[in-house]
Design brief:
Blueprint (H helix, E strand, L loop, with lengths): L1 H4 L30 E5 L2 E4 H10 L5 H29 L6 H16 L6 H17 L1 H15 L5 E3 L5 E3 L10 H13 L1 H8 L1 H21 L7 E6 L6
Antiparallel strand pairs: 1-2, 1-5, 3-4
Helix pairs in contact: 3-4, 3-5, 3-6, 4-5, 4-9, 5-7, 5-9, 8-9
Length: 240
């Protein structure tokens, strides 16, 4: 008996023992633990339940990540449309819609990965959420510009020597290539959260804070699994 207490150092080279066999019970199926068992986080699981959980755990793969990007792009496009349509139809640009965009993008990526998650999924979710929210400013700006142009159409006139008013000659328009125009719009859209901050610091700061919360929602949804499965371990011998 004295020898069993003479060396209190844990022996990591030996198997972990749950206790006397048939006296411990599985935390999932409630059946007695047999010859071997698993640890699912802190819960004890029998061999059958441990292997089932291990098999059902989402697996990360290149195919799954590619599929999650496709689903994420679809979610970002849907979020952009929702954000822009809401602002155009109501005339209100409410930053809280970015929370819904983050949720939609995160769920779409999680659906595409079939439950898998991790750091690269989180980075993709944050990038797509930011792109959807910021680029929604482009159709909003275009709508505002079109409405202002419809309501204000000043006609500039000049007087000739006969005192009759004639329309002024407009300066020749400078044409921009389609690619340059798209790049310019994309840059303005991606910078729109910070442009709003420069124009109206108070509301711009609130918008950035809400956008950060939306990005955090997308980040949390696409996190990896919190399950940690250890084992199998050999159980103790049955009691005599």
């Amino acid at each position: 008996m004295a020898d069993s207490f003479s060396n209190p150092t844990p022996q990591f080279g030996t198997a972990e023992y749950a206790g006397v066999r048939e006296t411990e019970h599985c935390s999932f199926c409630k059946q007695p633990i047999g010859r071997s068992y698993y640890r699912v986080n802190t819960a004890m699981a029998c061999a059958a339940c441990g292997e089932r959980v291990q098999h059902e755990l989402p697996k990360d793969s290149h195919t799954g990540f590619t599929r999650s990007l496709i689903f994420g792009l679809g979610g970002a496009a849907l979020g952009l449309i929702i954000y822009a349509v809401f602002a155009i139809t109501t005339g209100l640009v409410i930053g809280y819609v970015s929370l819904a965009v983050g949720y939609i993008v995160g769920k779409a990526i999680k659906m595409g990965s079939r439950g898998a998650g991790g750091r690269r999924y989180q980075i993709a979710a944050v990038a797509l959420t930011y792109a959807a929210v910021s680029l929604a400013a482009i159709p909003i700006y275009i709508s505002i510009y079109a409405k202002q142009r419809q309501t204000h159409q000043p006609v500039q006139t000049t007087k000739s020597n006969t005192d009759t008013e004639q329309p002024a000659e407009r300066p020749p328009a400078q044409h921009m290539s389609m690619g340059a125009a798209i790049l310019n719009l994309a840059f303005v859209g991606l910078a729109s959260p910070f442009l709003d901050l420069a124009g109206d610091p108070f509301h711009g700061l609130i918008g950035l804070v809400i956008l950060f919360v939306g990005l955090r929602i997308a980040w949390q949804i696409t996190a990896g699994s919190e399950l940690q499965i250890l084992g199998p371990f050999e159980n103790a011998v049955p009691a005599t």
